[in-house]
Amino acid sequence: MKHWLDPDNSGVTVINGNEPHSAVVTDILTLNNFGENDSAALYLANEGGYLAGNNVYGDLAKAEYYDSTSYNYRNVIQGIYIYFGVATGSQSNIVFSIWDDNNGTPGEQIASVTKPISSIVADVTNRQYTYVEFATPVTIPGPFYAGVVLPQIADDTLAIVTNTVGDTQINTAWEENSAEQWFPYDSDNSWGISLNHAIWPVVGYVATSVDNLPEKKNPYVKVYPNPTSSNIFVDLSNLENDAELYVYNNFGVLINKYNRNKTNSNLVKIDFTEHPAGLYLIQIITQDSKIVKKVLIVK
Fold first, then answer.
1. Does the predicted TM-score (pTM) go above 0.85?
2. Is the pLDDT of residue 15 over 60?
């Protein structure tokens, strides 16, 4: 097991003013595994270097795990914020990556973007988060890992901020070691502790293109009760094909998405209790048609 310095020693710096990014618009969200009251910290490796960065063990990459409980219906990754606590050097081009999930560990690298380490050094000096954006939004493949490939050039160093040991409910921090093997931080092959990295992917939703599908008036798709103040039920039992439901508010913003196949039910419940009164559209997409239903929410 690797050795790290605990919070009672000088190996951890608690960083004040940690304010992880939150949602900026309805369907764009910055994911964050930190708890609301977590303290940001920078841990040293006992033998030299940083726990969540370059160290004497020769770690190659650090990554943070996310699944659908965090991104919900959103289906693309737009970019990544990383809170670096240390950045030195000037030679490396740093690779920011997305990996898919391979049976519970980081698998194939499905997207990457580079940034000069000198730019990250400037961000750290100015006490700013580092942000990179992919040229094209990356399709979320299911559970995924977002992170950074560490520089391997002498004098170029990076270290990522984490929360503090004891804050973490579930470990989501991973690393690729010098043997190109991935391990979670709570493994005996790693640090044996649970942490969350300050690695925050920006995700959003790109609607499925249905412009070429004919709109179909289907009296057999029942939506009830309408109007209502809380729950709407959509009865899909008369549709032969699989169907996806998209719910839009009166500004045309997608607020939820459902798939009949995944819910394994012909009766879809849509909860409007947390949404304001107004007119909403439910778009039902099948293999060969689209059906649009209007519902009125009253409070």
1. no
2. no
